[in-house]
Design brief:
The protein is of the alpha+beta class. It folds into two domains: 143 residues, Gyrase A, domain 2, CATH 3.30.1360; 76 residues, Alpha-Beta Plaits (2-Layer Sandwich). The chain is built from six helices and 14 strands. A hairpin with a 2-residue loop joins strand 2 and strand 3. Helix 1 crosses helix 6.
Amino acid sequence: MATTPVETAYDPLRPPGAVMAQRDGLAVVGHYGSVSAEIAVCTKAAGLVDRSSVRQLAISGPEGLLDHVLAAAAPDGAPAPGRAGCIAGTWCCRVTARRAIVAGGPSAVTRWRQVTSRAISTAGLAVGSELLVESAALSLVGPRATRVMRSAGLPADMSVGEVAGASLAGSPLSVVREDGDHYLLLFEQGHPSAVWQALWDAGHEHGLAPVGNEALELLQAAHRSID
């Protein structure tokens, strides 16, 4: 996957020297100079990844009807409240009995929107869907990710596939534990600079460092091959 250096304004996750890449037609941070060094961070300490290519779709309605709509797109059925299921890299997160968040790449979220919209329209159900245009996502990954989560006051002692609501620097979010050392942080209303600062403050003593999407993708691919 080709990457192209571009000039960017200073950002906690996009300092001078960040190399951008394209994912699903969107610009993301590919790496910060060395993918191998960033993989090392994620295997020894903790990395923070800006998931700017992740899009979020909210689907809400009465519990039984929401189950029906989600099952149209989820081969294994709708996740139970407080649980999440991953389908081809896209997460369906049942944040409450009456609300779910689908998080994934733009193309995948578009497909979910199409499938669930057909289920809603053909059955005439009282279920609504909304693309969260202001949403944002981050990943915390590494053996010390749980320590960073605890230091930030975020739910950490979760089972794999569990979803929990939280707040960080005044911003509400949903936390998904993707695997033992990987947390996905979903902000429906975006994440202001105070969120970055809170995470850096919490992660400083645990060796938290910025990591690009290329290192994360390689780690995820390695994890899938083991499974």
